Amino acid sequence: MDYKDILTGVAERLSSLRGERLSAGTKYRLMGMAADIAEVAETLSAEVLERVRHEAVLDVDADTDFDQLAEEVLSWELTVAGDDLQELTLQVNSALGSLSEVLAEISSQLDRRHKDEEYARLYEQEKRRYLSSGTPRRVRQTFDDWVYDVCNGSPTMEDIIDYVTEKQVHMFEKGVFNSKVEHIQRASRYPDEFDFSLLDDDHKLKKTVHKHYSEFRKLVDYSDGCLVVNPVKVGRHFYANRKEENAKSHRNAFLKYMHKISLAQELYRKLQAAQSESADGGLLPDVLATGLAMKYWRRLQQAGFVDEHYQLSPATTRKQAMYIADVFSDKLQMRSKWKPFQELWHINNLAQEKWEMQETGKSPSRSEEIDAVFSD
């Protein structure tokens, strides 16, 4: 239904009536005009307004500026000379007012549907469509095959990180964000989230992958080392790109690869929980058990500063422990700098060690190695 053509026809008929010479047929033309305008309003209400109220944003033709049309119709007014035609003229103008109200209500409903909760609802709708297809079962089987065939049933946390990185790159290669990436002048970098060194130097996305990741992160939050879909942002992205070429396949690709990533991250959390058990049976505090924190713990273990239970190695001095805690807490942006480490390592007064280092201006031995552990 072309709303603009219908309204153009109404406008033309109004114009012809304004300049028409009064005749015996004018009365009947005015009656027909009022009835036709009322029918247009009723049709718009039935076919558009109800659809806007009950269907998803994605299925609404929002390219029509209904608010502008409402103002335009409201400005239309018929004036016909002749006392005996005044009542009919009022009926035509009243019908125009009703038509304007319907157009304004459609615009209002569209505005309402553009609120955050509606974008989130659009994402959930698309997700349900994906989950009701046969793809999720195949994705699960493929992931299980990777776990048992490639990793012999026991993937390490490093394996999972590599897997997630690989799936992100595959998503980028599918062109999900290409239309956006082409216009990015300066992309944000996330060195603690995406290990660009995992890509081969000759990888075709090596030079632009940070742009893809930057666009990807506009839709996905990074929390405790895991990527979590933001329904509002993704729904807004789906809606904004609904008319682009391959929009549907790009939506499906995004949902499929995020499904793969979520399966991997679910396993990652299980391994993280198992690995965070310390020697005395306690747990790492939550602030020291995030994905980013675990990356630094692994590096500290490899450098010999802590053991597999995150306890200080015998060769690690108090000053080195202070230095590790100081840099570690800065990297994690911790509110409490010393307490979590002092409770974990059963030592006190690390702040005093920091004060003494500042007073003497002398860093502890192996400080450069510790800096390297926390380098991005």
Describe the structure.
This protein has a two-stranded antiparallel sheet. Helices cover 63% and strands 2% of the residues. Helix 13 packs across helix 15. The protein is mainly alpha-helical.
Task: List descriptors.
2 strands, 16 helices, two-stranded antiparallel ribbon, elongated, mainly alpha, single chain, 376 residues
Could you give the order of strands across the largest sheet? 1-2
| Low-confidence spans | 56-62, 278-282
Helix content: 55-70%
Overall pLDDT score = 82
The H-and-E topology, N to C, reads as HHHHHHHHHEEHHHHHHH
* Beginning-to-end CA distance, first to last residue: 57 Å
What class do helices, strands and sheet pairing give? mainly alpha
Quickly count the helices.
Answer: 16
Number of DSSP strand runs: 2
* Rg from alpha-carbon coordinates: 32 Å
**Main sheet makeup:** 2 strands, antiparallel
Strand content: under 5%
Shape: elongated
